[in-house]
Specification:
Elements (H helix, E strand, L loop, with lengths): L23 H14 L14 H18 L7 H16 L8 H6 L11 E8 L9 E9 L3 H9 L5 E9 L9 E2 L15 E4 H18 L6 H6 L3 H18 L18 H31 L6 H24 L10 H15 L3 E4 L2 E4 L4 H19 L4 H13 L9 H4 L3 H4 L3 H6 L10 H16 L9
Parallel strand pairs: 3-5
Antiparallel strand pairs: 1-2, 2-3, 4-5, 6-7
Length: 471
């Protein structure tokens, strides 16, 4: 069947009620995008003129599919029209470096945060933790926005945050990537970014798989509430939405040296470790406060609304998720080359161990749960104190103080020049000299994590491209 034979809803002879991912129009669009990827250069262009005939056919298929599917997405009508135009303009201009500025600016998913609403996303872009090639990628996604999150967002305002579930996607997202950021799109100029999206279904699915395996390996007796997340994908997804909405807004809140997110800045990778951990621990701290406030109301005889009860349930679960995801997945995922997420997970584990609320005894892992919240908040307070003091510090002094905080808990590599003390010629030089002296694996895995990583390696690898299966 040719696309011209498919009705305006992208499905024939099936009805318009057919799910988008099952329509011929979607499959034609997806296949055309994948075919384009094979002839695109890293910058997104199609450099070989002999490929331009095929490229034009693929683009025509994408444009026709976009127009057929557009009625399914009335909330995105302006964006989809601009998207089709950007594809046509790219083809008409000879398939140079693609420019999808117009359709990117028209795409405003943060204005449609309604549970279950869908988006069709087609851009030449790279995928974080996936490919650095700006190839055409196509995604079908669904918004996750339960009522308790809508209520939470009135207190933790984050108008740019979009929570999504992956429905179907091209190979760029058959990877570890769990985010969609507008800055990854190929465009002629940088607009003011108005949204950022996280695929909570992928975060939740790999959390469930990794934590289930790690708890078995370490003989950890999971608390009942934490164990429930491992058998309930929807529960885990909503937990990650609550965690991430607070985490994301924290990047630009607090007593900050300037821009802790460090966009386009080159600095020692452990600074990124502390920033990401700061945001996670803020989410943890806020969920401790929400739990305390709502439980006190119950103890005083109040009856919580359904939304409040759900918020209380997930505030408790966020605390477990932060600890287990940081310890079991972040610490041992990825290479040891400047892996700042790994260092953050290692730091949390070691901090809790040093404070006697985490125990690795008789080859079994255990927590003193009554003492865990205070210990986690203490680490968050230590990072906040570092940031507050660094408002008055020069950049390099801040870096040295940050290293002191991390190395007071994690043991640096024996060959570390930072641990021995940087020589005067580095200390008196430019910031780049400091960064050059940081080892790729400045804080190696402990013996605990070395052993755990070997046992968990197949499990971690199996989560690439994982989808959120409801079980």
């Amino acid at each position: 069947m040719s696309l011209s034979q498919i009705d305006q809803y992208g499905a024939s002879p099936v009805t318009r009620d057919t799910a988008v991912e099952d329509t011929a129009a979607w499959h034609a669009l997806k296949d055309a995008a994948i075919a384009l990827q094979d002839i695109q250069a890293q910058d997104g262009s199609v450099p070989d003129t002999e490929d331009h005939g095929d490229a034009r056919v693929y683009v025509e298929t994408i444009v026709e599919s976009l127009r057929m599917l557009s009625p399914r997405f009335p909330h995105d009508a302006q964006y989809l029209a601009a998207n089709a135009h950007d594809f046509e303009r790219w083809a008409d201009s000879g398939f140079g470096v693609p420019d999808f500025y117009d359709s990117l600016v028209a795409f405003q998913p943060q204005l449609h945060r309604e549970d279950g609403i869908r988006h069709l996303i087609v851009f030449p872009m790279y995928t974080q933790n996936g490919s650095r090639d700006r190839h055409v990628e196509a995604l079908l996604v669904e918004v996750i926005w339960p009522e308790f999150i809508a209520q939470l967002e009135t207190e933790y305002v984050n108008r740019l945050f979009v929570s999504l579930r992956l429905i179907d996607f091209t190979p760029g997202y058959d990877t570890n990537s769990a985010v969609l950021f507008p800055e990854t799109v190929s465009m002629r100029e940088i607009p003011t970014f108005t949204w950022g999206a996280i695929f909570q279904d992928r975060e939740a699915a790999r959390y469930r798989r990794v934590v289930r395996a790690a708890s078995e390996i370490t003989k950890l007796d999971l608390p009942g509430e934490a164990a429930r997340m491992l058998t309930d994908q929807a529960l885990a997804e909503r937990t990650f939405v609550m965690w991430d909405i607070i985490h994301d807004r924290t990047h630009m809140r607090g007593d900050l040296p300037f821009d802790p997110f460090m966009i386009k800045q080159r600095m020692p990778f452990f600074l990124y470790s502390l920033e990401e951990l700061r945001c996670d621990l803020t989410a943890f701290r806020e969920c401790v406060a929400i739990t305390k406030r709502l439980r006190e109301r119950v103890e005083a005889g109040a009856t919580l609304s359904d939304v409040e009860a759900e918020m209380l349930e997930h505030a408790v679960l966020v605390q477990y998720a932060v600890i287990f995801d940081r310890i079991f997945r972040f610490s041992i995922t990825g290479t040891r080359v400047r892996n700042y997420d790994a260092v953050g997970g290692q730091l949390l584990f070691a901090w809790l161990h040093r404070r006697g609320v985490l125990h690795w005894t008789d080859t079994s892992l255990a927590f003193d749960w009554d003492g865990v919240p205070a210990a986690v908040v203490e680490l968050g307070d230590a990072i906040d104190e570092l940031y507050w003091r660094s408002i008055d510090r020069p950049k390099m002094a801040h870096w040295l103080a940050a290293y002191e905080l991390v190395s007071s808990t994690l043991t640096p590599h024996p060959a570390s020049k930072w641990a021995r003390g940087l020589p005067d010629e580095v200390l008196s030089g430019q910031p780049g000299g400091y960064t050059d002296e940081v080892l790729d694996d400045e804080f190696p895995l402990s013996m605990f994590f070395e052993a755990l990583e070997k046992k968990m390696r197949p499990v971690i690898s199996s989560t690439a491209g994982i989808r959120g299966a409801y079980t």
